[in-house]
Write a structure and sequence with these properties.
mainly beta, 10% helix
Length: 208
């Protein structure tokens, strides 16, 4: 267990938007939460999460690529608690499980402008991330535009998980533990399949 000011920044291993007819769109250029000429779209992203740590803060980091209309958005755990796997689910199931109510973030306006966004997902997300880490070793997040009756094009799109610079990330702050590290800065990179998991230890003393 590591103590002090430390964060894990985890790159998504998979993500996609999904249309209301059950069509998934991984690696199609963008993940849309909104409406296109072909239908209504929602998205989900997933990350590996270790139960070696306890977390006390969860943040989503993602780049808004395109804004098609000025809307509000809801973000929650995929299938409410974040434990289901959107990659393994059918398109129809994924779409249904992205029908989130905005427990983490309700009616957020953060996706009304392009650029990289860092969003604190709140206390319920922390509870869900810790539970998901123990139960399934991953966590998945879902998003939808609140007003799905808007005309096309509408909503906003997210940069996809294969992007070299700004893929969707989950940043987790570790709860206090019992180890102290003395270098001014320590970073441990762990490759799990394609993504990188980075543990950053801020300047602090480290005790063992």
């Amino acid at each position: 267990v590591v103590s002090g000011f430390q964060m894990l920044t985890i790159t998504a291993t998979w993500g996609a938007d999904v249309r209301n007819d059950g069509t998934k769109g991984p690696l199609d250029g963008e993940d849309l939460a909104g409406v296109s000429d072909s239908g209504i779209w929602r998205w989900a992203q997933k990350w590996p999460v270790s139960d070696d740590y306890e977390y006390n803060k969860a943040e989503f980091i993602g780049e808004i690529l395109n804004v098609y209309s000025s809307e509000t958005f809801d973000l929650d755990g995929y299938n409410n608690d974040g434990q289901a796997d959107p990659e393994a689910d059918s398109g129809a199931t994924m779409y249904s499980r992205c029908n989130v109510a905005g427990v983490y973030l309700n009616d957020t306006t953060q996706f009304q402008r392009t650029g990289v966004k860092t969003l604190d997902l709140g206390a319920q997300a922390v509870t869900d991330v810790n539970a998901s880490a123990v139960a399934v070793g991953r966590f998945s997040l879902a998003c939808r535009v609140v007003n799905e009756g808007i005309g096309a094009p509408g909503g906003a799109s997210l940069r996809e998980y294969d992007h070299a610079t700004n893929p969707p990330k989950l940043r987790l702050t570790l709860a206090g533990g019992g180890v102290t590290v003395s270098p001014a800065s320590v970073a441990i990179a762990i490759n799990e399949q394609a993504p990188a998991v980075r543990l950053a230890v801020a300047p602090a003393s480290v005790a063992v």
